[in-house]
Amino acid sequence: MGRPVKSIQAEVIDSCGLTIHGVEELRTLIGRETGVGPWFTVSQDRISRFAELTGDTQWIHTDPERARAESPFGATVAHGFLTLSLISRLVREAVDLQGDFRLSVNYGFNRVRFPAPVPVDSRLRARVVLNALHEAPDHVEIVWGVTIEIESAPRPALVAEWLLRKYY
Q1: In the chain, where are the structural domains located?
Q2: Within 13 Å, how many C-alpha atoms sit on residue 67's CB side?
Q3: How far, in Å, are 29, 137, 153 from residue 33 at the CA level?
Q4: DSSP 3-state of 42
Q5: Whole-angstrom distance between the N-terminal and C-terminal Cα of the chain?
Q6: Most distant CA atoms of the chain, gap in Å
Q7: What is the three-class DSSP state of 8?
Q8: What burial class does residue 160 get, using C-beta atoms within 10 Å of its C-beta: 0-12 exposed, 13-18 middle, 19+ buried?
Q9: 18-167 in CATH: which number?
Q10: Spatial distance between the Cα atoms of 55 and 47, rounded to a whole number of angstroms
Q11: pLDDT(168) > 80
Q12: 32-83 pLDDT tens trace
């Protein structure tokens, strides 16, 4: 590709991650961890609103008393798809990619797994690795390896390979 990338004003993010300045710098990070985001709390209110929005109102998500009494988790848990839906926010907080991009498009996933449940009030964060980078004349396709960690848990909430396209 080799075309110069101009910096643009990036959104200010409270991040523990890495700021990457353009595609040239991104190329140097293939195969490396590029960022770890700040912790984000998954509240019952967020879980309940997601349940209402999606129509997935199963009691393990929406009924704290019943979940305490009957669930193997001892509390309500976030939907796997709620955790998945947080991926763009959590990755953006972990990796601040600046460049002359006019548009970002979620291109999909090569793989998604939910190794552990996310109990209510858990704190999550993204750990991001740049798995691959594919360049085209009008865009760059980024393949992020994303692990959504649960604070103090032995297994992650989510492991995914996410494809994101950034158009010039």
Answers
A1: 18-167
A2: 17
A3: 8, 26, 20
A4: coil
A5: 12
A6: 60
A7: coil
A8: buried
A9: 3.10.129.10
A10: 12
A11: yes
A12: 999 999 999 999 999 999 999 999 999 999 999 999 999 999 999 999 999 9
